Amino acid sequence: MFISHIYGAFQTIRKTDAILQLAALAGDFLLFRAFSAAGSLENTEVVSLLATALNNLVTGELMQMTVTPAQRCSMDYYLQKTYYKTAALISNSCKAVAVLSGQTAEVAGLAYQYGRHLGIAYQLTTIPCHSDRV
Fold first, then answer.
1. Which of the ends of the chain has fewer CB neighbours closer than 10 A, N or C?
2. What is the pLDDT of residue 7?
3. How crowded is residue 116: how many other Cβ atoms within 10 Å of its Cβ?
4. Does one domain contain both 87 and 131?
5. Alpha-carbon dihedral of residues 40, 42, 46, 51, nearest 10 degrees?
6. Integer Cα distance of 9 and 7 in angstroms
7. How far is Cα of residue 130 from the mean position of the Cα atoms in its chain?
8. Does 122 lie in the same domain as 88?
9. Rg of the chain in Å (alpha carbons)
10. Could you tell me the residue range of the domain that residue 35 belongs to?
11. Are residues 1 and 66 in the same domain?
């Protein structure tokens, strides 16, 4: 009886691991497809913006995983992490659209700032939902 419970638990863990591995591979696939599509645009600035956004997403995840108790109580730290995890993708995407549509550098900068503020505002509206992870 005990062995059957262990075996059942092991099978559940294996299925969970397989699902997580599949999800990671699917995410990698989508990421590479996005960069392939961006590369076909033949616009190095847009590819650079997307690479920056991806780098920032990883940085934000690392910040969340390694947060100290003191940092957990810091609004500056929270806003920086929020920028990396949420606002960086939105801001760089807004700027990429401005660049692709032939806007001036000034308008592209304004689009970036708009995306930054939008991303941070969105995250701030969800604080009660994530209060255990702030």
1. N
2. 47
3. 19
4. yes
5. 60
6. 5
7. 16
8. yes
9. 20
10. 1-40
11. no
DSSP state, 67? -
Whether the predicted pLDDT of 122 surpasses 80: yes
Residues 15 and 68 in one domain: no
Please give the structure tokens belonging to residue 65.
Answer: 């995983």
The total number of structural domains that make up the chain: 2
Q: Give start and end residues of each alpha helix (H) in 1-134.
A: 2-40, 44-65, 69-72, 75-82, 88-100, 105-125
Q: What is the pTM of this model?
A: 0.71
Long-range contacts of 70-75 (CB under 8 A, 24+ apart): 72/134
Contact predicate 86/115, CB 8 Å: no
For residue 107, what are its two tokens?
Answer: 């308008």
Question: b/e string for 23-58 if b means 16 or more Cβ within 10 A?
Answer: eeeeeeeeeeeeeeebeeeeeeebeebbeebbebee
Dump pLDDT digits (tens) for 13-70: 566 777 778 877 887 787 778 778 878 888 999 999 999 999 999 999 999 999 999 9
